[in-house]
Amino acid sequence: HIATSLPLPSERDHLRPRIDLIVFMIDIKSKYSLRNVEASLAHVDASFFLGKVCFLVTGVGRMNYCSVEMNAIWKLRDVYCSPVLFCELELEGVRVATAQRLLRMLQICAGHVPGVSALFFSTLMRNSTDD
User: Domain coordinates of the chain in residue numbers?
Assistant: First the structure.
């Protein structure tokens, strides 16, 4: 399911499936995109930040048109202990690889990968991005 911001409307709570992963998309060319994500973060239960949230930064192939400082992205990663993925949506191969990576993350977060928890996976992601 896709939402443009949080909180989600409460009138459909009874129909909403369980939420296993939240991906916050940030368009590096739009400060509004970052502000929307920052405002939405306040509506996420703290327990989700233990392996069930990631930030997907798009538009990275056009860094010369960047409106969002990378320091702001790194701050979100550090404050919310959540991994950051980068993607250029205009390149099909990158888009497909990112979609596959997100799908694998979702499978882990939903508990469909035996022996790997969302928290453990998040720790692995964090360590790989710090190198």
Answer: 18-125
